[in-house]
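Intended use. Records like the one below are meant for learning the mapping from a protein sequence to its folded structure. Do not use them to infer anything beyond what is encoded.
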Amino acid sequence: MEYRRREVLGASAAGIATAVAGCIGSGEDDGEGSIAGEELALATTTSTEATGLLTEINEAFRERYGVRVAANAEGTGASIRSARDGNADVILVHARSREDEFMQEGYGVNRRDLMFNDFVVVGPSDDPAGIGDAEGAAAAFDAIASAEATFVSRGDESGTHTKELVIWDEAGVEPGGEWYQELGQGMGETLTNANESGAYTLADRGTYLSRDDLDLEILVEGPIEGGPELLANPYGIMAVNPEIHPNVNYDLAMSYIGFFTSPEGQQIIEEFTANGEQLFYPEALSADPNFRQYVPEGWQPDSSGD
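Structure written out for the chain above:
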């Protein structure tokens, strides 16, 4: 994935989006075909809520369509389980391997790349394990394990936890012992715990930058600041398959996906900041589209002719 800002399409595309919005429904109940007054069930990761981005997007969606978004932010793993059980209309998560599995099982449809940021390894300024000099995330994790320096893990099957486990695997380390603490909590709580205990942790850049109460420093950068691609953090959005769960509101889910990936939605992502820092980078619109976003990694069409 190329980590650069995508050009948001211009006024003509915005006009098309506005016209489509008018056809789907406005903030007023205009009779048959309107979606005003309905409620969308969204399952999502904690970083979208903790940063405040979700509040801004959902308010803009409500103003446009008159629809309330009932968001349940509990991490990627829990969000996918909720959607698999038919308890969500749409999911917004950030662990592509788990998204692919969800789609391969038939539970998810119409996946879109949405936005990205990256992961960073943060820790106390005195850096007791010396990871600031490490060449990459895996080397940093290996140094933490070798020094038995305190590392706080989310331990919650979230997208961040999934990435953390990938890095430990790359480092050839199976973490454990008193120095490795699994919390089973969200990113915000994990950062607070690491800050209070002088520990290292893996964080998504957006949640870290949205906090102004931390003494933790970024010691290993992700690809946005020239770090390794291993720390890439793309977000995807997809509807729950109505053929598997007829109870889901598929039309509303697709309206939300359309809004989030529209020029208006992508501009909200582009302009969203906290403490003067951009937290996410839009990725849905490009003159050079990535068709692999729609299907699981490694998928090939059936060429048997049956």
